[in-house]
C-alpha cells in the first residue's frame, strides 16, 4: 500500500527516473547502461499494446499522466482534428 501511494504521488523529479526506458543492444554496449530517463526528441520504439512496433520521436513527456506522446502515434477525433495518443512510459 505504501509503495503504491509513493508511486502515484511522486513529484515530477522522481517521475523522471521512474519513466525510464531500456536502451537498444548497441546503445547499451556504447554507454554501459541498461536504461535511461526518456526526454523530448529521443527516438523510441513501442513494444506493447496496439501501437506495437511503431517508431518515432518523442514530442512530449507528460509526467503528470505518466505518458509520452510520440510523433506519428495519433488518432482522429470525430470533428476531424488529430490528437496524440499517450503511450505508457
From TrEMBL:
The keyword Secreted does not apply. One of its GO terms (cellular component) is large ribosomal subunit. Residues 37-64 form the KOW domain. GO terms for biological process: translation. Keywords: Ribonucleoprotein, Ribosomal protein. PROSITE patterns: RIBOSOMAL_L24. It comes from the Eukaryota. Belongs to the universal ribosomal protein uL24 family. This is 60S ribosomal protein L26-1. It comes from Noccaea caerulescens (Alpine penny-cress). The lineage of its organism: Eukaryota, Viridiplantae, Streptophyta, Embryophyta, Tracheophyta.
